[in-house]
Write a structure and sequence with these properties.
The complex is a heterodimer of chains A (155) and B (172).
Chain A: H1 2-11, H2 17-29, H3 34-75, H4 80-106, H5 111-126, H6 131-145
Helix pairs in contact in A: 2-3, 5-6
Chain B: H1 2-15, H2 25-35, H3 41-53, H4 62-99, H5 104-132, H6 136-151, H7 156-170
Classes of the chains: A mainly alpha (155), B mainly alpha (172).
């Protein structure tokens, strides 16, 4: 994401920093992976629907091609070497995701947040509640616990 | 028809993917492993690991799931289904959200969705751990990665790559 900002704001000068931050916060609010959403918003700003389309394809295609290549190399082979490598990759990916969860959690040690997090995790893991129902049930609860911020001047 | 089902599963994931890729992991696992048995839980975590190695969002792992279901056509269908609906939605409503900047309800929603997404991310960690951690060696790999990620600014893909190289010998 820092690389995207450098290219879009500093080098290409399509947006200023304010606009970029605004697009980032919109991308975080909407469904979808954040880098691709930012790409769509920047592309749309630069050249409407064609711009958004080109940006989305460009954001996804290289990763897709490399991943398919990696998959062809690693998943087709059934040697014990590649299986070992893949098991280690998977284990490390779990560790990276755990670290990400820890980092995000220590920023919000509020009892209501922790209860909502635990409720969501328990519903998903123990009851296998679907993502749709989880969002439908827990978002209103979380909204009820979120105090409205005082209005900023000029808002 | 599997291709239709594949497209439907990833389209729904795309449109419900609030909070980015890690929040949809539990539902993706529920769909592709538990409901449709397209891949095993171990394969799911390996796909996830490989996706960390490639540039771009981890959600691209949908391509590998699609490949397992219906070859190269499946991988293209799954990739389009997981990225395009959210992209179209983003294009369609992005400017509405931008216009609501400073609106107290928008800020309130932004705050409220965070703990919900975090709960989903924690559920994702547990889901992945169940499929990937099958003994003390894999647990050690995971914990070392956690520590390095929290304490250093090492590149993620590099960590996965080095772990793969060690794993080829240590976990064969």
């Amino acid at each position: 994401m820092p690389a995207i900002r450098r290219e879009v704001v500093k080098n290409a000068k399509w947006l200023d920093d304010d606009q970029y931050l605004e697009m980032l916060s919109v991308a975080q609010l909407l469904p979808g992976s954040n880098p691709t959403s930012v790409a769509v918003l920047v592309g749309a700003q630069v050249r409407g629907i064609p711009g958004a389309t080109v940006a989305l394809v460009a954001a996804v295609l290289p990763g897709f091609a490399i991943l398919m290549l990696l998959g062809a190399l690693a998943l087709d082979s059934h040697s014990s070497w590649t299986t070992g490598a893949l098991r280690a990759c998977a284990a490390v990916a779990v560790g990276l995701t755990l670290a990400n969860a820890v980092e995000l959690t220590i920023k919000r040690i509020k009892i209501s947040d922790l209860l909502i997090m635990a409720g969501v995790a328990a519903s998903v893991l123990l009851v296998h509640l679907s993502l749709f129902l989880t969002l439908l049930i827990f978002t209103p609860i979380a909204l009820a616990f979120t105090k409205p911020k005082p209005k900023k001047a000029g808002a | 028809m599997n291709l239709g089902r594949l497209a439907l599963v990833f389209t729904i994931l795309s449109l419900l993917g609030f909070g980015g890729g890690n929040a949809i992991i539990p539902q993706m696992h529920l769909d592709v492993v538990d409901s449709y048995h397209w891949i095993t839980s171990a394969e799911f975590t390996r796909f996830f690991g490989l996706a960390k190695l490639a540039p771009g969002p981890t959600t691209t792992m949908a391509a590998l799931v699609g490949f397992a279901v219906a070859g190269i056509v499946g991988s293209i269908v799954a990739t389009i289904a997981v990225f395009v609906p959210a992209g179209v939605l983003c294009y369609a409503v992005g400017h509405v959200w931008e216009r609501l900047r400073g609106n107290p309800w928008r800020e309130r929603f932004a705050q409220a969705i965070k703990p919900v997404v975090l709960g989903l991310i924690w559920a994702g960690v547990v889901t992945l751990a169940r499929g990937a951690l099958d003994g003390w060696v894999t647990i050690a790999f995971a914990l070392v990665a956690t520590g390095l990620m929290l304490r250093t600014s090492l590149n993620q893909a590099l960590m996965v790559l080095v772990a793969g190289a060690i794993g080829a010998f240590a976990l064969r």
